[in-house]
Design goal:
- By secondary structure, the protein is an alpha+beta fold.
- Helices cover 15% and strands 28% of the residues.
- The strands form five sheets. It has a four-stranded mixed sheet with strand order 2-1-10-9. Strands 13-12-11-15 form a four-stranded antiparallel sheet, with no helix packed on it. The protein has a three-stranded antiparallel sheet with strand order 5-6-7, with helices on one face.
- The longest helix has 12 residues, at 88-99.
C-alpha cells in the first residue's frame, strides 16, 4: 500500500531543504515552515535560482527547534549562523552581499510562498517516478539525490508504480481528493517546471539538453489513464495540491498510508 516515505520542507524558499519525520499542517493549509521565508528584490519579485544562479552555491542547514539557519558557500569552510527571527537583518545583509543585490527577506507563517498561489499545499511525487526520471540521464549520469533536489518536492510516496501521482489531478477547474494519514489533500495540477532542474544543485552547471530529454521521455511514458488536457507541454512533473483549512493542526508522519 502506498505510504509516505519522505518529508522535505524548504524553510527559506530557493535554498536547501530539511528532512523531517513529521510535520504539522499550518493554519493556512500548508506544511508548517515550508517556504516560510522568501527573498525579494527591490521590485517585489522573487529572488531565486531562476534569476540568480549564485543561489546554487549557498548551502543551508537548519536547527528548527532553535529557529536557526547556518549558511555556507560551496567549497568554503566558513559557516554563518543566524536566528531566523532575532537576527533577520544580519541574515538579510549576508544574503544581499553574497548575491550581489539588495534582498528583502519576507515571512509568511500562514501558508508560506508557494510557486503556485492557487495550490498552496504540498507538492507530491512517487519514489518510483524519481527513479525513472533518474534513469533518463545516462551520459553523464545524475544520482537520485540530485534528481530529488533538482525537483524540490515536499512529499515522496513509496510502494507505487511510476507516475502514480498523475492520477491525482483531473480536468482544469477540478480537484482530486486523496488522504495521507488523516490529512485530506486536493490534487490540482501537474507541476510546471522552470530552468532550475536543468542545473546541478551544488554548482549551478547546466546539464546539456536536460529539458529536451525530460520532455521526450515524459511524453512517451505518460500513463494511459492520465488527463492529457493538463499537458500543454510535457515539462511537468509531480503534483501540486491544496490542503483544506479544516486540516490545520493535523500531523503528517513518515509511513502514513495514502488512500484515494
Amino acid at each position: 500500500m502506498a505510504r509516505l516515505s519522505r518529508i522535505l520542507i524548504f524553510p527559506i524558499k530557493s535554498l536547501d531543504p530539511i528532512a523531517l519525520n513529521e510535520v504539522e499542517i499550518s493554519a493556512g493549509g500548508a506544511l508548517k515552515g515550508d517556504r516560510e521565508f522568501a527573498m525579494f528584490d527591490r521590485q517585489g519579485k522573487f529572488v531565486n535560482g531562476k534569476h540568480n544562479p549564485k543561489i546554487h552555491l549557498i548551502r543551508a542547514s537548519y536547527n528548527l527547534g532553535d529557529r536557526q539557519v547556518s549558511l555556507q558557500i560551496q567549497n568554503q569552510n566558513a559557516v554563518f549562523t543566524f536566528h531566523l527571527d532575532q537576527q533577520r537583518e544580519a541574515l538579510t545583509n549576508w544574503l544581499s552581499e553574497f548575491l550581489g543585490q539588495a534582498i528583502d527577506l519576507r515571512q509568511n507563517t500562514m501558508n508560506g510562498f508557494p510557486d503556485d498561489p492557487d495550490a498552496w499545499g504540498a507538492t507530491v511525487v512517487s519514489e518510483a517516478s524519481l527513479k525513472t526520471v533518474q534513469s533518463w540521464y545516462q551520459q553523464p549520469s545524475i544520482d537520485l539525490e540530485q534528481i530529488r533536489r533538482r525537483f524540490r518536492t515536499n512529499l515522496e510516496i513509496a510502494d507505487t508504480e511510476t507516475f502514480w501521482e498523475d492520477q491525482l489531478f483531473a480536468k482544469s477547474g477540478e480537484t482530486v481528493p486523496f488522504q495521507i494519514g488523516d490529512v485530506q489533500f486536493l490534487g490540482t495540477n501537474p507541476c510546471q517546471r522552470c530552468p532550475v532542474p536543468t542545473r546541478d544543485v551544488f554548482t549551478g552547471d547546466v546539464y546539456p539538453e536536460f529539458q529536451k530529454i525530460f520532455t521526450r521521455f515524459r511524453e512517451s511514458s505518460l500513463p494511459n489513464n492520465v488527463e492529457r488536457s493538463r499537458f500543454n507541454h510535457f515539462y511537468r512533473f509531480a503534483v501540486n495540491t491544496r490542503i483544506p483549512l479544516t486540516e490545520a493542526g493535523k500531523i503528517l508522519k513518515l509511513d502514513d498510508f495514502v488512500s484515494k
